[in-house]
Design brief:
86% helix, mainly alpha, single chain, elongated
């Protein structure tokens, strides 16, 4: 079973990267620049970003994909992924809203919505890959 989840993890990584990098690099790039440009670094810390992605994907698989595979239910992957994304992005954004001066409310709303959708899509895609691997 460990080899199965390792393969699933390796195949989920590019799903997450592709979806999130399209969002961050193309779709919402100007949005984040407009609202957070005053604190954005001119250079991405890729080491930190990659570590985040690698750890976060473990969470999606553990909390959303694994239970969905046990039930053999795509809807479960979609809903648990959405819930995981909502909770984690809300934690980040609401903490920033509570503790950082000038953190924009529009960022909170958009980012939580994005995290919810992103994790739902990734969990669903990973579920389909997991069924294929079975």
């Amino acid at each position: 079973m460990t080899a199965y989840y390792f393969k699933l993890y390796l195949l989920t990584v590019p799903i997450f990267f592709a979806i999130d990098l399209i969002w961050l690099g193309v779709v919402a790039r100007g949005f984040y620049q407009k609202h957070l440009g005053y604190i954005l670094s001119p250079e991405v810390n890729w080491a930190a970003a990659i570590v985040f992605y690698l750890v976060y994907i473990v969470g999606i698989i553990f909390f959303a994909v694994r239970p969905a595979l046990n039930e053999q239910a795509l809807l479960t992957a979609c809903l648990l992924g959405a819930f995981f994304g909502f909770i984690t992005y809300a934690t980040y954004d609401l903490t920033n809203l509570a503790t950082l001066k000038g953190w924009p409310l529009i960022i909170v709303v958009v980012d939580i919505a994005w995290g919810t959708l992103l994790c739902s899509l990734v969990a669903s895609g990973s579920f389909l890959v997991g069924r294929w691997l079975q």
